[in-house]
Design goal:
Length: 432
């Protein structure tokens, strides 16, 4: 058969499949797929024609499927079978994916469908009983791979995977382990850590975030918190009692951790130094400002239950940032923050061995084999200190928003960078 006839046959086959896809309802087509537990209609965002909540059967362990299965929650928002698919690899729970107000920014930009996957063992994708040995990067990436394989039966145009922060990490791990699942990846503010107590973030906060004068004001504010510790501790105690918060450490140690976390949170979320209290302000004013920037539910046992699996992952494979007490040694009771994740977030006698091999695998993949991956970061975001590196790979692109923070998106970029991003995506979309 010559090249023309082969091309014609392929085109006719696609038309037949496409017509068959339109002959059945979307619900019926998905129900006919293997490993589909249930399909439920939802209210769709006006951009789409319909939306569905789907439960997919996934094995706890892909190497040993005999260990049982769990239900993973997926949200599909349909535009058309012949349009691209934006594949969202959420790193946490996905309740917001059920809202008709949710629309990933790539969908209108690329005129695309939307497929949102809640991460295993978070949110409603959490079985009644969890063996944490099954919460691995490898299994999570295999979850995404299985879902891509299922839905590519219907959506045969280009696939674009994307995620934010830990979801961006999830995008990169999935892409490194299954490089042919999608055509393009867009990872926002995604870290790539190599330790459970990375030092790069502290160095960034003290030497790179913002201007020197801004960093000095943040540090001065932290010192003022500590100088007023005896006055602020009673306010903290009452606040905790009113909120009914519970912690794994004492009140003095908790206060010191709040002061350490203050700087990271300040730069991560893009607060303004103009709002830092003057030294003439009252103790109550300083306390209110501290808990505004460092929200105390972060350390609370009950409030932390939905994100507890993240700290398991951080200790096992993902890594996290460390704290530096040296600038505050004369004012702080806390001097040793080693193993602070265990102290603050883990039940007693809970330990995991850290293995950086998957992060190293991604690093090597980005350096040598990766293509069509767009990395987007904010200049002042501490997570950019552990940003994934493109390592001179010309097939990857990295955009850093000036003065941007952890909320950096395509929509927040200045016009020149936004146009550059769209030019990159348009080129990759049209490439064969």
């Amino acid at each position: 058969m010559n090249k023309f006839l082969r091309s014609l046959s392929a085109a006719l086959l696609f038309v037949v499949i496409f017509q068959d896809s339109n002959a059945q309802s979307l619900v019926d087509q998905i129900k006919s797929m293997p490993d589909i537990i249930s399909v439920e209609k939802m209210e769709a965002n006006p951009f789409f024609t319909e939306a569905l909540m789907i439960l997919v059967r996934q094995p706890f362990d892909y190497l040993h499927p005999e260990n049982g299965t769990f239900a993973q929650r997926v949200f599909l928002s349909n535009l058309a079978f012949d349009k691209p698919m934006v594949f969202i690899t959420e790193g946490y729970g996905g309740d917001y994916g059920a809202s008709s107000s949710y629309l990933n920014e790539l969908c209108p930009l690329l005129n695309a469908n939307q497929l949102f996957v809640e991460h295993r063992f978070f949110g409603k994708s959490r079985p009644d009983s969890i063996d944490w040995k099954f919460l691995t990067v490898e299994n999570a990436a295999a979850d995404d791979h299985h879902i891509v394989e299922l839905f590519k039966r219907l959506y045969r145009n280009k696939w674009i995977s994307t995620g934010i922060s830990k979801g961006g990490e999830t995008t990169l791990y999935h892409r490194a382990l299954y490089p042919d699942d999608v055509d393009i990846s867009v990872a926002y503010v995604a870290p790539l850590n190599f330790s459970t107590a990375e030092k790069r973030h502290d160095y960034f906060i003290r030497h790179k975030a913002g201007h020197y004068s801004d960093r000095k004001k943040v540090m001065t504010c932290q010192l003022e918190f500590l100088k007023r510790k005896n006055e602020l501790i009673p306010l903290l105690t009452k606040y905790i009692e009113d909120k009914n918060y519970k912690y794994r450490v004492g009140i003095s140690e908790l206060f010191d951790y709040c002061v350490l976390e203050f700087a990271f949170s300040f730069w991560q979320w893009g607060y303004s130094v103009s709002d830092i209290p003057a030294k003439t302000q009252s103790d109550q004013f300083f306390f209110d400002y501290l808990v505004k920037i460092c929200t105390l539910d972060y350390f609370d046992i009950e409030a932390g239950k939905p994100t507890f699996p993240f700290f398991v992952q951080a200790l096992k494979q993902l890594g996290y940032y460390g704290y530096n007490t040296k600038p505050f040694k004369d004012l702080m009771d806390l001097h040793d923050t080693r193993n602070y994740i265990n102290r603050l977030f883990m039940p007693l006698n809970t330990y995991f061995d850290y293995d950086p091999s998957m992060s190293l695998l991604v690093k090597n993949y980005l350096k040598k084999d990766a293509r069509n991956i767009l990395l987007i970061y904010g200049e002042n975001d501490p997570w950019s200190a552990s940003a994934a590196s493109i390592c001179g790979n010309q097939k990857l692109k990295k955009i850093v928003q000036p003065r941007g923070n952890h909320r950096t998106r395509i929509g927040t970029l200045p016009d020149s960078q936004r146009k550059k991003v769209m030019s990159i995506l348009d080129k990759w979309i049209t490439d064969n």
